[in-house]
Design a protein that fits this description.
single chain; alpha+beta; CBS-domain; Alpha-Beta Plaits; 2 domains; three-stranded mixed beta sheet; 10 strands
């Protein structure tokens, strides 16, 4: 899952001295909002294609437009997961990709990154999602995993973020390969984990079976 596998190499590039009258939105893919601009053969920034017609009213050349500058650097050898924060930092949906010699190899889009993540096993597999708030000093994925696996569950994905309410805590988003998370939640709470949210889907037959099993256990007492 290296960046080099998802580079767009055929994206049209604009020279700064090209007349704006010769630039057309339809020359670029529909899902690409920016056109890369080269000055003296080197990447200088992006022209916002959504504002192209407005720019044409007052500007005559690409070089006269205010370009979207890029304040991050993506290398073709980076893992795809490494560059997600760079898209967030830049605020752009398209970024240039550089090689070790400092030359642009092409471009990578946020849409491509989303498709890669969405196509992984963790997001293709059905299951439920838990959100825990855990003091950062006490966070242990191995301990949480042990408690989940004690209920025959498997962790498919984990995402950490700082708790906006308790900034000394992590919000731990966990996807588990089970739709019914009730037993896992009970176990986590028994070990004093604070479960903030539970997202699960249970069909009617599953609910009926669970109620029937509870009734049978009651009658057996």
């Amino acid at each position: 899952m290296l960046v080099s596998q998802y580079i767009i190499r055929s994206l049209p590039e604009l020279s700064g001295d090209i007349p704006l009258s010769e630039v057309y939105r339809e020359d670029f893919p529909e899902d690409v909002a920016y056109a890369p601009v080269l000055v003296d053969g080197k990447f200088a920034g992006f022209l916002d294609l959504e504002n192209l017609e407005i720019e044409k009213e007052t500007k005559s050349q690409v070089s006269q437009c205010e370009l979207e500058l890029v304040n991050v650097r993506i290398l073709e050898t980076q893992h795809i997961f490494e560059i997600i924060p760079l898209f967030i930092k830049s605020g752009l949906s398209l970024l240039p990709v550089w090689n070790e010699e400092g030359e642009t190899e092409g471009y990578i889009s946020l849409n491509a990154v989303n498709q890669v993540i969405g196509g992984t096993h963790a997001f293709q597999t059905e299951g439920g999602i838990l959100v825990l708030t855990v003091p950062a000093i006490h966070y242990s994925l191995s301990e949480i995993s042990r408690l989940i696996e004690a209920n025959q569950g498997k962790i498919l994905a984990v995402v950490l973020e700082t708790d906006p309410v308790l900034n000394q805590n992590y919000l731990v988003h966990i996807k588990v390969n089970q739709s019914d998370l009730s037993r896992i939640v009970a176990t986590l709470e028994r070990f004093e984990y604070h479960v903030l949210e539970v997202h699960q889907t249970m069909d009617a037959s599953s609910l009926d079976k669970d109620r029937f099993d509870q009734l049978m256990r009651y009658l057996d007492i």
